[in-house]
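Researcher: Predict the fold of Bulb-type lectin domain-containing protein.
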Amino acid sequence: MHSDRMRITMRAGGDLVISDENGTVRWSSGTTGQNNYATFKADGELVVRSAYQHTLWSSRTGGHTGAKLVIQNDGNVTILSSGDQTLWAAGTQH
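Model: Structure tokens for Bulb-type lectin domain-containing protein follow.
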């Protein structure tokens, strides 16, 4: 997922990162491992899982069906409830 300002990428080493338009990492899940992957679940939870499907990192926002992952105009990456309440924010605004 990306915008003109921010990009969400799973790195080859297994770390989910959010970087700005200059490539500067603004947030990291701090995970490592071959074949890790990220999923945004239908209940509003963003997770990084290992190749063996173990959860390595979670936004802890599950239970919010209809939530959405949003890159805001200020560059902050957030998870918003269906009522637009902020459930999680990466703090990547700049």
